[in-house]
Specification:
Blueprint (H helix, E strand, L loop, with lengths): L61 E6 L8 H10 L9 E7 L6 E7 L8 H5 L5 E3 L6 E3 L9 H5 L6 E3 L4 E3 L5 H5 L5 H5 L5 E5 L27 E4 L7 E4 L5 E5 L6 E5 L11 H5 L4 H24 L12 H25 L17 H22 L5 H27 L13 H25 L4 H34 L3 H10 L3 H24 L4 H27 L15 H10 L19 H24 L3
Parallel strand pairs: 1-9
Antiparallel strand pairs: 1-8, 2-3, 2-10, 4-5, 6-7, 10-11, 11-12
Helix pairs in contact: 7-8, 7-10, 7-11, 7-15, 8-9, 8-11, 9-10, 11-12, 11-15, 12-13, 12-14, 14-15
Length: 637
C-alpha cells in the first residue's frame, strides 16, 4: 500500500463523512454497490498488495472540486501528478489551461485545472476496442491499463476533456488513475494535496467541501456535461466578461447567453478570412492512415457489391462482370486495394503487433464491430477471389457463399464505420453527412475500380460500352449523394453554436483553397460521369476523358477525406500558449524545438515501425500472448 508519511498535513487526508447525498445531479446513485454485493471487500491489488482500504466511503462515487476563483495557474498540481505517476515531459494527466476576457484594467483570466473526471457514463470505456478501461465500484474510478491498449487512440477522440493521453513515442494511452493507491490509505490525490491556492479538492461527489459556496457542473470552456456526466464540480463566483477567449490556436471563444447565464462556444476568427491551401498539414496529418483505410475499404465494398450483382445475381446492366476474363482481374485489384487499406490502418496503431485485441469489446465498442465487419468482409473477398478461379459447381457454390458473406459483413463494417464517427465530442463529424460521404464513396469509387479494370482488360465493344455507362451511372449517383451531403453539412455547421461552426470556419479559411478545389472537382466529376452515363465512351477521346475522371476523382477523394479528418475540432479543454496548443506543437516540430524535451513536444516516433520489426516483435513477443489472449476470450474470463 501507499506509505503515509508521519508528518502528512491534515489537509491531505480525505474527510470521513458519516452521511452523504444518495444521488448525484444526474440521478445516479452515489453508493455504487449494495451491502451484499460481491464487488465489496475486493482488493485493488495495488503494487501486488492484497490489502483493502478502510475508507468508509470506499464504494461511493468520488470526484474533484475546482475553485476557479482560487486557482493561480502555478501548475503545482501538474507537477505533483507527473512526479507521482512518472509521466514523461510530453504528456500530462492533469493540465492547467485558461480562458481570458476583457482589457486592462478590467482584464480577467480563469485558470482551469483538468484531469480525468471519472464519469458516470465513461465514453472512453464503451469506445475502447481492447477493453483497456474499467469503472470500479471503489471510488467510482475509471482506470485504464496501458498494457492492454494497442494505441488506436479512439478514446482520445470520444473523451470531451482530453483526459486519455496517447503517447506518440510508446504508442499507447494512459491517463489519471484518481490516485487510488492514496485513496486506499485515506489520502487525497497528489494533485489536490499539492495545490497551493486551495483551489483543488476531492471527496464524495455532491458533498461540497468546507469553505465552498458552489458546486456547479459548468464554467466557461468546459464542454457540455450531457455527453458523459462527469464527476467534477466548480466554484466560480466572480463576475465574468461577456466573452472569454482561448489563448491556444483553436478558433473558439465563449459567449455568455444573457437568458440562461451560460457560456456557449462561438467562432473566434483568429485567422481572418483569407483562404489558404495548407497542403502539407492537409495531406500528411496524423490521420492520413485513416484517409487511406476508409477510402480503400469503402471503395472495395462497393466494388464487391457490383461484382456480386453482375456475377451471381446477373443484373442485366452488369452481366458482363460475370465473365471470367473480367471477374478475375477485378477481384484481384479489389483484394490488393483492400489489403493496402488494412495494412495502413494496422500500421497506424501504436502497437500494430497487438492488432488482434481489436475484437475484445464487440459488446460495446463500434470500433470493435467495425474491425470485425471489415475483417470478415476481407475474408469473404479473399475466399470469393480464390473460389471464382475454378469453374465447377462446388467451387461456384463456395464462391457464391463467400461473396454473400463479404457483402453482408461489408455492410455491417460500413455501418459501424459510420457509427464510430458519430461522436458528440467532435461535432463536425456528428452529422448525417458522414453517412452520405461514406456511402457516396462506396458507390463512386467502387464503380471507378470496376470501370478502370474493364477498360484495362476488355476490348471496347458495344457490350463493354454499355457496362461502362452503367458504372458511370453508379459513380454519378455516389458523387451526387456526397455532394448533397456536403451542401447540407456546410449549411448546418455554419449555424451551430459549438465547435462544428469553428471547424467550418477553418474549412473556408485555413484550408479554403483546398476545400474549394475539392468542391470544384466534385462538380466536374459529377458532370463527366453523367455525360459518360448518357453517351458512353466510344473513341480515344472518350477514353482520355475517362482517364481524366479517374485522376480527378482520386485527387478529390484524397482532399475530401483529408479535410474530414484535419478540420474536426474536439470539445477539448482550453490550453495555454505553449501547453496543450496544437499551433505550438506544429511550430515546435517545424522549427526543431521538439528536440528540446522541456517544450513538452515530441515527434510521432512509433510510426517508424518497420515491417521487419513488426515480424520480429510478433515472433518474439506476441505468439504466446495471442494464444493466451484467445484462451482469455473463450475461457472463464
Amino acid at each position: 500500500m501507499f506509505k503515509v508519511r508521519p508528518d502528512e498535513p491534515k489537509y491531505a487526508f480525505l474527510s470521513k463523512l458519516e452521511e452523504s447525498p444518495t444521488e448525484n445531479r444526474y440521478g445516479q446513485k452515489i453508493e455504487l454497490t449494495t451491502e451484499d454485493s460481491e464487488l465489496r471487500n475486493e482488493s485493488l491489488c495495488i503494487n501486488n498488495d492484497n490489502g483493502i482500504g478502510e475508507n468508509p466511503n470506499r464504494y461511493k462515487q468520488h470526484g474533484f472540486y475546482l475553485n476557479v476563483d482560487n486557482c493561480i495557474g502555478c501548475h503545482a498540481c501538474e507537477s505533483a501528478c507527473s512526479e507521482k505517476n512518472d509521466v514523461p515531459a510530453h504528456l500530462a494527466f492533469r493540465s492547467v489551461g485558461f480562458v481570458e476576457g476583457g482589457t486592462y484594467p478590467n482584464y480577467q483570466r480563469l485558470n482551469i485545472s483538468m484531469a480525468c473526471n471519472h464519469c458516470d457514463d465513461p465514453v472512453c470505456l464503451t469506445g475502447c476496442p481492447t477493453r483497456a478501461y474499467t469503472k470500479f465500484a471503489e471510488y467510482g474510478a475509471v482506470l485504464q491499463d496501458p498494457d492492454i491498449c494497442f494505441g488506436c487512440g479512439y478514446c482520445t477522440w470520444v473523451c470531451p476533456y482530453n483526459a486519455p493521453q496517447l503517447d506518440p513515442v510508446k504508442g499507447e494511452v494512459s491517463k489519471c488513475n484518481m490516485c487510488v493507491d492514496r485513496l486506499e490509505v485515506g489520502l487525497k490525490p497528489a494533485c489536490v494535496s499539492a495545490c497551493l491556492g486551495n483551489a483543488l479538492d476531492f471527496g464524495v461527489i455532491e458533498d461540497i467541501p468546507e469553505n465552498r459556496e458552489q458546486a456547479k457542473a459548468e464554467i466557461p470552456g468546459f464542454p457540455s456535461t450531457d455527453i458523459t456526466h462527469p464527476n467534477i464540480r466548480f466554484q466560480q463566483t466572480k463576475a465574468t466578461q461577456q466573452e472569454m477567449t482561448r489563448t491556444d490556436s483553436m478558433p473558439i471563444k465563449y459567449h455568455k447567453e444573457e437568458a440562461q447565464g451560460e457560456f456557449k462556444p462561438v467562432v473566434d476568427e483568429k485567422q481572418g478570412r483569407e483562404k489558404h491551401w495548407n497542403l502539407r498539414k492537409l495531406l500528411t496529418s496524423h490521420e492520413s492512415a485513416h484517409v487511406v483505410f476508409t477510402l480503400c475499404t469503402q471503395a472495395t465494398i462497393g466494388a464487391l457489391l457490383l461484382l456480386v450483382l453482375g456475377d451471381i445475381f446477373a443484373v442485366k446492366e452488369l452481366a458482363l462482370l460475370g465473365e471470367y476474363a473480367l471477374l478475375v482481374p477485378a477481384l484481384f485489384t479489389t483484394i490488393v486495394i483492400s489489403t493496402i487499406g488494412l495494412y495502413k490502418l494496422n500500421m497506424h496503431l501504436g502497437k500494430p503487433h497487438r492488432f488482434y485485441r481489436g475484437f475484445n469489446n464487440l459488446r460495446l465498442s463500434p470500433v470493435s464491430r467495425e474491425i470485425a465487419g471489415v475483417s470478415i468482409f476481407y475474408t469473404g473477398l479473399l475466399a470469393y477471389g480464390l473460389f471464382a478461379v475454378f469453374d465447377n459447381a462446388f467451387m461456384n457454390a463456395l464462391a457464391t457463399a463467400s461473396a454473400i458473406l463479404g457483402i453482408l459483413s461489408g455492410a455491417i463494417g460500413l455501418f459501424y464505420m459510420y457509427k464510430l464517427y458519430r461522436i458528440p465530442a467532435r461535432p463536425f463529424w456528428d452529422h448525417r453527412q458522414t453517412a452520405t460521404a461514406f456511402v457516396g464513396s462506396m458507390l463512386s469509387f467502387g464503380g471507378l475500380i470496376i470501370a478502370t479494370v474493364t477498360v484495362a482488360t476488355m476490348p471496347l465493344n458495344a457490350e463493354v460500352i454499355s457496362l461502362l455507362q452503367s458504372l458511370a451511372t453508379v459513380i454519378a449517383i455516389g458523387l451526387a449523394l456526397e455532394g448533397i451531403g456536403h451542401i447540407v453539412h456546410a449549411r448546418d455547421m455554419k449555424t451551430r453554436d459549438n465547435e462544428g461552426a469553428a471547424s467550418h470556419y477553418r474549412q473556408v479559411t485555413e484550408y479554403g483553397k483546398s476545400y474549394l478545389l475539392r468542391n470544384v472537382l466534385l462538380g466536374i466529376n459529377l458532370v463527366i460521369a453523367s455525360i459518360i452515363a448518357s453517351v458512353g465512351i466510344s473513341s480515344a477521346l472518350g477514353l482520355f476523358v475517362g482517364l481524366l475522371l479517374m485522376l480527378s476523382m482520386l485527387v478529390m477523394g484524397a482532399f475530401g477525406r483529408s479535410l474530414f479528418f484535419v478540420l474536426v475540432i474536439p470539445t477539448t479543454m482550453p490550453g495555454a500558449f505553449f501547453w496543450k496548443n496544437d499551433g505550438f506543437v506544429d511550430h515546435a516540430r517545424e522549427t526543431g524545438l521538439a528536440d528540446m524535451p522541456q517544450t513538452g513536444v515530441v515527434y510521432e516516433r512509433h510510426h517508424a515501425f518497420k515491417v521487419g520489426e513488426l515480424l520480429e516483435t510478433l515472433k518474439e513477443n506476441s505468439i504466446k500472448d495471442m494464444v493466451e489472449h484467445v484462451k482469455w476470450i473463450f475461457g472463464s474470463k
